[in-house]
Amino acid sequence: MRTDEVKVNICHIISGDLWAGAEAQAYTLVKGLSKKNSLKLNVITLNGGYLTKKIRDSGIKVDVVDEKINSSLKMVWYIYRILRKKHIDIVHTHGYKETLLGGFAARLARIKGIVRTHHGKGVIYGTIYHRFIEKLNTIFFSDNLIAVSEDLKQYLIANRFQRNHITVIHNGILSEETKPSMSADKLKNALEIESEALVVGTMGRMVAVKGHRYFLEGARKVLSKQDNVVFVIAGDGPLMQESQKEIKQLGIESKIRLIGFRNDPFDVINMFDIFVMTSLHEGIPMVLLEAMCLAKPIIATKVGGIPEIIYDHQNGLLISPMDSQEFASTCLELIENRVLRKMLANNARKDFVAKYGVERVTEDTEKLYKGLL
Fold this sequence. Notes:
Blueprint: E1 8-14, H1 21-33, E2 39-45, H2 50-57, E3 62-64, H3 72-85, E4 90-93, H4 96-108, E5 113-118, H5 128-140, E6 144-147, H6 150-158, E7 166-168, H7 184-190, E8 198-203, H8 212-223, E9 229-234, H9 240-250, E10 256-260, H10 265-271, E11 274-277, H11 286-293, E12 298-301, E13 317-319, H12 324-335, H13 338-355, H14 358-371
Helix pairs in contact: 1-14, 3-4, 4-5, 7-10, 8-9, 8-12, 11-13
């Protein structure tokens, strides 16, 4: 029987212990794939948090195998039972832990294929323990790897992952969901930002790899020359308190807003006059695609997969990582040039529509699944 005559039964396994880029992309992919008539979607999460709720709210059934109350062996057993009960054909994992536990269960259940998405470099360059786990995952629990950028694929190859088992599928987003629910002025008012102020903002976890330190240092340099600007960081994480201290030391408290994790990310991005990403490394950041979808002028570091989607002075401006001076001068260039801002914003939106909708991602992923049957 031809594979296109029956539904291929897919099970995604995602940790779901937080909500960040990998979780957002997993949610986007699952929801996009659920619209495919040739596929039947199942999801297992290892935590019953925000991701689980979002998937369930989309009408997709989720089984939670809670890592907080179960040992690793119990989790393997529970996942195995779900895979057998639902007659799963392909398991698709989204992290090292999910691949180890889900991959073990999938092999026991004699699943036809295991796909692993690498959303970033993650633990590949982590501790010896994590590198060992990743090596086990690659040898025993992955039939095909998805890298979200060509840069990440080359990194995997350099770390002795098999070239012929790696497929590059750039991230995409659900354009129908990427819409603000309130006006920029209303959110500005809620955040005590003057309506006429120009807002320069970023969104991402408060962790070192996001380069928020350089965002803040650059903000101080900009504010020494332009007073009618407010800088916003949306996101939570372990470096929140450290960033608050740095803001005080820089003497820019009145011009910075640390607004934490937000359930309304599109409202926040829509409020930004300039979207900034000062990361030290990225795959293909979901939030960058969201900014493109919402037609924002973008400044981003030329790291990881970012130069694969942002072309300097065409649909955004690229800067060097860890360079607060270059960020500041580039930011001032955009602040002072309304025409350039509009041109970059329009081009970003055009490129998003042409290349980064979820439909393209689901087509490529479906082909990969069927190649494993």
